[in-house]
Amino acid sequence: MQVIGILCSTGAALFWAAAVIMFKKSGDTFSPMALNLFKGVVTLVLLVPTLWFAGEPLFPVRPSTDWLLFCISGILGITLADTFFFMALKRLGASRWAVVDCLYLPCIILMSTLFLNEAIGLKGIIGALLVIAAIGADACSGSSSVMSRDDFWTGLVFGILAVVMIAGSVVMVKPLLEETSVLWASFVRLLAGVAGLIVVAVIHPERRVILGALLPSSAWKIVLPASIVGNYLAMLAWLAGFKYTLVSVAAILNQLSTIFTFVLAAVFLKEPVTLPRMIAIVMAVSGALLAATAV
């Protein structure tokens, strides 16, 4: 089972990195909320038949606390975190997002220490500080000159919020994942997340634009495969990784998305590969791995 967890966690990192590149292109057409709603609906449409083929009931008899926790996890990790992620990606770009994303591992480890009784020591603290220093180094390197300072700092805040909420959404259901079908867990989280997005979209002043993303258009050529790869495949692999291996191991392998994203952004988005940004990536990954060795 450990091998399955390792493969799934690594696969999730690769799927997500590829999707980040496609989502960045899609963000030029769709607003962050419209993009989040679109990918959620697409994944939900794919998950329902997947559950049926797997023989998994959509609404099994389970304790109400299980339903509540998975729904809260979905609202936190999909309705809120993914919207913040798209807002950050639109402002920061894919390679700079890769640096911010390195906060994911220290956040996972800190939360698993607080709520799952996994130990963390001085190395974990130093690792987290190194990641924060990497973000600061990137901010002060002058590489953000292509964007306004307001965009940079706003994107940074949205990015940090996204990472913290994503980490919290999976740690809170880790004990339940050990005895729950990955497909069903994904379905409930997504159902709650999409429901939350629809409620927000309906009351949003730009509801027509947001809901209009669900109508066929030329933008689907990019956003549809991005949603399948980045939400359907990546989410299943991500949760399966946490189910079949330790939280810290899965999180370490998930962090490979930083390197994948950085390379793919340079190749496909032509984002500049500057020395300061490379140093920031190395510092961030090193800090994340140092934090991981603390558990």
Record the SSE blueprint.
Elements: H1 2-26, H2 32-53, H3 64-92, H4 94-100, H5 104-116, H6 122-140, H7 149-171, H8 174-177, H9 182-203, H10 207-212, H11 220-244, H12 247-254, H13 256-268, H14 275-292
Concise account of the structure shown:
By secondary structure, the protein is mainly α. It has helices at 2-26, 32-53, 64-92, 94-100, 104-116, 122-140, 149-171, 174-177, 182-203, 207-212, 220-244, 247-254, 256-268, 275-292.
Main sheet record:
none
Strand content: under 5%
Assembly classification: single chain
Kindly report how far apart the N and C termini lie: 20 Å
Counted by DSSP, the helix tally is 14
Question: What helical percentage do the residues reach?
Answer: over 70%
Features of the shown structure:
mainly alpha, globular, 295 residues, 14 helices, 79% helix
Can you tell me about this structure?
- With 295 residues, the protein is mostly helical.
- The chain contains 14 helices and no strands.
- It has helices at residues 2-26, 32-53, 64-92, 94-100, 104-116, 122-140, 149-171, 174-177, 182-203, 207-212, 220-244, 247-254, 256-268, 275-292.
- The longest helix has 29 residues, at 64-92.
- The two termini are 20 Å apart.
